[in-house]
Amino acid sequence: PYHRPLFLQYTGTDNGVNLEWESYVVEGTEMEFLIYEIYRGSDSTVLTKIDEISADLRVYKDIDNNALKYRYFYRVAGVKANPCYPTGSSKAESGPYSHSMSNIEDNRLQVIEGINLQSAENLMIFPNPFNDYTTIRFTNPAHSEYKLVVRDLTGKVVMIVSEISEEEVIIERNSLKAGYYSVEVVGEKIFRGKMIVE
């Protein structure tokens, strides 16, 4: 069946790290959860549960002082009252599944040896959503060299474009599956954005 998983995004740093997420939808019906669990870590592969909130909410503010100083990664888990049991052979013979996990999102701070560097700037991505191709534009008046990295909802790198020295790059869909992707352009500055492939 068609699934639209939890889609987590960073929405700013007004008195804390503000996070917001979309509901989980299966074939047009919103999935009901008991609670949402909030996970955080300085390494995207090692996240620890820091809080849980009502399933009526889809926003969270991390007010820990360190969250405004150091780079952290976040993930949200929706906890179901009744676990799902796999019925087909397409999944591993395991389960039951009681959590639905979001993508991993960070607070857009870069830290090297305890020094806080600049926050990321936003990318212009159009059209977005797209079917065949999209244009990604960012500020690069000195024509410095940048690298573009596209990640899927799990954080897996699905595309890298190196040696970009212009202020825009055109991305063709090629083998990208329909879904949400995070885009990062790294060089003298850091630019980030989200794109949706239809």
Characterise this structure.
The chain is mainly β and 198 residues long. The protein has two domains: 3-116, Immunoglobulin-like (Sandwich); 120-197, Immunoglobulin-like (Sandwich). Helix content is 0%, strand content 56%. The chain contains no helices and 21 strands. The protein has strands spanning 3-4, 8-12, 17-21, 25-26, 29-30, 35-43, 46-54, 59-62, 73-84, 97-101, 105-106, 109-112, 115-119, 121-122, 124-126, 133-137, 146-151, 157-164, 168-172, 179-186, 190-197. The strands form six sheets. Strands 6, 7, 9, 10 and 11 form a five-stranded antiparallel β-sheet that branches. Strands 14-21-20-17-18 form a five-stranded mixed β-sheet, with no helix packed on it. It starts with a strand and ends with a strand.
SSE inventory with pairings:
Layout: E1 3-4, E2 8-12, E3 17-21, E4 25-26, E5 29-30, E6 35-43, E7 46-54, E8 59-62, E9 73-84, E10 97-101, E11 105-106, E12 109-112, E13 115-119, E14 121-122, E15 124-126, E16 133-137, E17 146-151, E18 157-164, E19 168-172, E20 179-186, E21 190-197
Main attributes of the structure:
198 residues, mainly beta, Immunoglobulin-like, five-stranded antiparallel β-sheet, five-stranded mixed β-sheet, 21 strands
CATH architecture of the largest domain: Sandwich
Task: Tell me the β content.
Answer: over 45%
The dominant shape is globular
Helix content range: under 10%
Q: What's the total count of β strands?
A: 21
Instruction: Write the CATH fold name of the largest domain.
Output: Immunoglobulin-like
Tell me the radius of gyration: 18 Å
Report on the biggest sheet.
Answer: 5 strands, antiparallel
CATH superfamily of the largest domain: Immunoglobulins
Structure classification: mainly beta
Succession of helices and strands: EEEEEEEEEEEEEEEEEEEEE
**What is the tally of helical segments?**
0
Average pLDDT number = 80
Low-confidence stretches: 111-117
Roughly how many Å apart are the termini?
A: 16 Å
